[in-house]
Fold:
Amino acid sequence: MHGLHEFVCDQDVKQNVKQLYKEPNIANYDRVTEILSPFSGLSQIDPDVVRNAGNRGSVVHKIAESLVYHPFDLSRPGKFDMNDLIRAYAPTDKHFAKEIALVKPMVESFEAWLKIIECMDDESFTVRKFLPKPDRFYDNELMITGECDFIYEDHMGRLVLADLKTPTSESSSWMLQGSAYSWLAKKAGYEIDIIEFVQLSRKGSSPKIYHYKEDFELFRSHLNVYRYQKSLNVDFDHTIDYL
Structure:
């Protein structure tokens, strides 16, 4: 029986490769999340509400990544830094109390997802084998970029691209986002078999799981519309990165 999660390649090897690789200038690329922002409906929501949700999602993502990749490294922001991370954007006691009541259950929901195991025929238990944190993906032909949360191998050896979500309802943009991430991951050498979006519960229970079939051509259609709008000097918000 393995631990709850393990890496399938050496972090030191990855670090050596990164030292030989110069990351492209992100300013020259369109982000997947920015491309989809005109279709997200966020423009109809109070900007302060959207900004707050983005901050909340950022905290949840930081803690989740720490739990997977650095569970014993206290120098990195993690579960025990939750209060400080929230205080950074919710300085008043009233705001802080509201946010901690939302963030804490979502972290617990993520931990519940980490603990999900399945029984195999030989009565042993299978686990997710997390690959080291994927670097940001770049497509130098379409000039787009995206960054998923996790890639792991499941009990059948399939490679799963997983992304965390903190809103209370599914968005029609999630499938498009997952399709773009899957496309980019494949171009980077990851043979993605499954696109999995993990909608965290605000009650601390197990999250709701969505599996999507890649449809990159539909995403490309949205990309064309986005670039037309961009040519008209329309501004877009990066807050959707953590929604």
